[in-house]
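Long-time lurker. I teach an intro course on protein structure, and each term I like to show students one example going from raw sequence to a predicted 3D structure in token notation. This year I'd like something fresh instead of my usual example. Would anyone be willing to generate the tokens for the chain below so I can use it in lecture? Attribution to the forum is fine with me.
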Amino acid sequence: MRKEDCFYLGKIVSKYSFKGEVLVKLDTDDPEVYENMESVFVSLGNNLVPFFIDRCRLHKSNLLRIDFEEVKTESDADRIMGSSLYLPLNMLPTLSGNKFYFHEVIGFTVMDEVHGDIGIIQSVNDSTAQALFEVLKGDKQLLIPINDEIIRKVDRETKIVHVATPPGLVELYLE
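-- Reply from a regular --
Happy to contribute to a lecture. Here you go:
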């Protein structure tokens, strides 16, 4: 399995017991969706390795307590500590309306209420406090904040994200 065919689920952040159980910090708004998984891919080096799960359950807010078939001691758990977990893209729950996955809107056109077509989404920068669409219009890059006030409609059929940018934002980049 390649990382491009998967989505990031979370990261192993600590050991839970001397029997090899680990706690995973999930990157999701709906942790309960992943409570009864049978397997995941663990990123080890440059490879995604399938790990089968004996038992997994929610632990506090967005932590998942996992007992892997292959991990039965503290030293086994130490070997996978800090590793990222992935699942195939086809396991993502389907979103509708204005909810979307970042990877889903790459290549969509951004249509502003005032300025019209302001470019194509090249990527999403979520390493900042506010996630941003990185939009390319000709040779200029625009950074558009991703929030409910700006995004008016996500049209999956026409591959257009309709936005209402704050006054002056588009001019900042295009003039």
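Some talking points for your students: The chain has two domains: 3-91, 102-174. The chain has a mean pLDDT of 92.
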